[in-house]
Amino acid sequence: MMHFITDTITPVSLSPGIGEACAIALAQAGAAVCLIQRNAANTATRDALRLLGVRSEIVLCDLADMASVKTVFDRALELMGGEIHILVNCGGIQRRHPSVEFPEKDWDEVIDVNLKSVWLLCQAAGRHMVPRRRGKIISFASLLTFQGGLTVPAYAAAKGAVGQLTKALSNEWSKENVQVNAIAPGYIATDMNERLLADPTRLRQISERIPAGRWGEPADFAGPTVFLASAASQYVSGEVLVVDGGWMGR
């Protein structure tokens, strides 16, 4: 899991695959990037960004540790210097159990990582951006912001709340020139969906329903992320942009 901060400086909360694609896209657009991740030994994304000629650093944080989450924005700001202009919340976890058996421990962990950490990072970003009247906040929602899913009640609850949090913050901060939006991925071929990809029946059922005829890839989020992080989206706020190969349209 990572976040990245880009001067433009961006903090971004990332998950393997989509998070790395977002970080690379913002770096290619000229942003310095601070990766917020829990594994100090994993420097592959940071090193790839540096090869693009932009500054990239790592700040350690476990998104399940709220004490660490509460300090990570300020630690990233101190490391990078200047201002933070973009926050991307892309870190997340998944737990699957029938709802009658869903463990309380798993529920709490999913809500903490997928919702509470997003709220705390957005709040920290707002405290920094609102007085400066400049900022972009992008959180990653899900198709389950709109649908219930199967055997994932905690994830659906968290992602539904991310959509509403996006709207609530937009209502307060858009007048301060801080745009708050979200991206809702469809079915994407990443580690989080490993169990679905390995289930022939579910894989067929899902694949047949996607009008684009394929599962999404991390690279599909480069353009939407750069758009929402740039001046091109200056009058876009409170939106949940669905990137799903047409799934919701069907």
Automatic annotation (TrEMBL):
One of its GO terms (molecular function) is oxidoreductase activity, acting on the CH-OH group of donors, NAD or NADP as acceptor. InterPro entries: NAD(P)-bd_dom_sf, Sc_DH/Rdtase_CS, SDR_fam. It comes from the Eukaryota. Gene3D superfamilies: NAD(P)-binding Rossmann-like Domain. Keywords: NADP, Oxidoreductase. Belongs to the short-chain dehydrogenases/reductases (SDR) family. This is NAD-P-binding protein.
